[in-house]
Amino acid sequence: MAIGFAIHKAKRKVSPDLVARFRTLPVANISDVMSRIAGTNRLRPMHGGGWLGGPALTVKTRPGDNLMVHKAIDLAQPGDVIVVDAGGVLVNAIIGEIMSTLAEKKGVAGFVIDGSIRDAGAIRAGSFPVFAAGVAHRGPYKDGPGEINCAISIDGMIVEPGDLIVADDDGVLCVPYDQAEEICKQTEAKKASEEKAIQQILAGTPDRRWVDETLARLGCEVRD
Would you give the DSSP letter of residue 177? Predict the structure, then answer.
């Protein structure tokens, strides 16, 4: 039995219909609903900008090695997000223009990589979503080991195969499979509430009573 060098079968994934509902929701709103303690702030968009969402196809790899990432591209179904735990090491790039082009052609929704990318100019000029921790000119090794469809950690964010990955210009979140429906409902309500607040501001009728009420509740004194 190979320890740490295996391809597991995926057993579940969030539905395309649920992914479509999340497409309308800002990651910041989802983060608020998830108590503002979920996700990662370290990975940033490396592409030209835009939303990423879909079920996680997880990869755990030795830092600087992309053999299993190549295999994940071959296994990916249209709409999957390839999520790579490369240990956060930034010395060697995990993907570049060739692999991102291959994945886009295959119908992959995008990449989330706790590691580096290269060919940054070409990726930045495109719209194919790539979120990563950094950029490095040094290329990857292709020796393994690694695992596909296993639980991984991205900068402390636990990702299980089939969980929902959402990302935009504000960062990356993993929405657990079992909680995705409820989080979606609550985020839809959160977004509607914020849209109402913006409309009130534009109309010149914002309700700011909560500021003084909060200060009073916390015991803030008003002094001459």
Answer: G
